[in-house]
Amino acid sequence: MEIDDFGTNDSGPSNLDSAANYDYTAIALKALAEIDAGEEKQLEAGVQAGQAISFAKKHLPHGEFTFWCKTTLKRSPSYCSLQRRLFDAREDIPKALSWANEVAHKWAGCRSPVLVLKLIRECKRAADENSATPPKTRLRELTAATTPLGPVTDWRLLP
Residue 40: what pLDDT? Predict the structure, then answer.
């Protein structure tokens, strides 16, 4: 699999003429069939399904998206949301997979959308820890702070 093979555009066709002819249902069903079949390019199919699902969510009338997911795609709305999140994070996928290979992460070879999204989150967290800016102070460290008047029990009272 080619890591940089996520070349989809933002959310379907860019101009109105092609948007009218964009069959997001057929594209989503085809991509979901590839995912179900366990094809080698399962992650790319997930991104493609996420693109079509994102387009559908934007263009279906209010209240019809859940029905469309359940009846047409035969998927739960939460599964469709997972595919949309994968599409939204598509630019971070190659970097996260490269990072996972470099650090020999236990999920380096995994192509599950859930685990890839977790890899992206861990990759970003590792990058933040390695950056020059100090990490944010945790809430429990704030609540353990003391002032001249004694321990702080409410973080909103801190200076």
Answer: 75
